[in-house]
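Practice problem: predict the structure.
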Amino acid sequence: MAVVVSLEERNRPARADLSDLLALTAEDMAAVNTLILARMQSPVALIPQLAGHLIAAGGKRLRPMLTVASARLCGYQGARHHRLAAAVEFIHTATLLHDDVVDESDLRRGLATANAVWGNKPSVLVGDFLFARAFELMVADGSLRVLDILSRASAVITEGEVMQLVTANDVATSEGAYLEVIKSKTAALFAAACRIGAVIADRPRAEEEALDEYGRNLGIVYQLVDDALDYSADQAKLGKTVGDDFKEGKITLPTILAYLRGDEEERAFWRRTLEELHQEPGDLERAIQLMRRHGALEDTILRARHYGAMARDALGVFAEGREKRALVDVVDFCIERGH
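Answer:
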């Protein structure tokens, strides 16, 4: 795969943090967080208790921040983006609750997952509640265009999760099939979160599409790096158990590349550990060793840089300014986090 690296990118020092985005969106995100905490309330006590375990515990709130920053980039002056950013966060949180049940995960953001604390059934049902809250916020906004964008994204996310189930434990999964999964399950919400900023600002379709393209490529970057970090990160920094993907037999780009580049003995190892889920002590360490031997982790990050360059290029239609610089810095953050 060719890697697009602009001269501007080569000469500009990486900003591997979100400081500008956080400062830019601080006032708006305070309103968004207030709305999130209010809308997750319910007379059924377990709902806010379980939802709050994930929502109020923290997280970067990256997706709603992208909605706020995109709206500001497009010159929006109202308050609709608060409600829609909250809807984006509810969609994201609902998918996390469901994902943790499907993946049988025990740790997220350094804390026990909701399903580990309360069980699978409450986690699934509270995820459904949060989806419903998201759609209430979309309907209250009153824009059929926004409703169409976010509802389509919600459907695509679910399709991506089902596609991932289909490819689970199949070491013959192609890189193309893997990319289709992450474009759906991760990148679709990034794209929608950014696009609606242009919609509510009533900007030209070209700007809508530019923000969609930026968000979509950023989402691919985010997932590629996340999948590499599962085999290479400090667990305390990552906030989830390192090696979870391996334990679950999840097929990600590092495993695809290592399998394709390995000899028959190595491929037999991948089939045993990922397809048959017959894992022995030391297998995770060997998996990481094989990935490093064949450059699978490095090339996964290289792919991320390729999509990062496309995300930056998509912002070319917008004038230079604080908002654009903050969105460009997000790309660097997503690539460099954990490294």
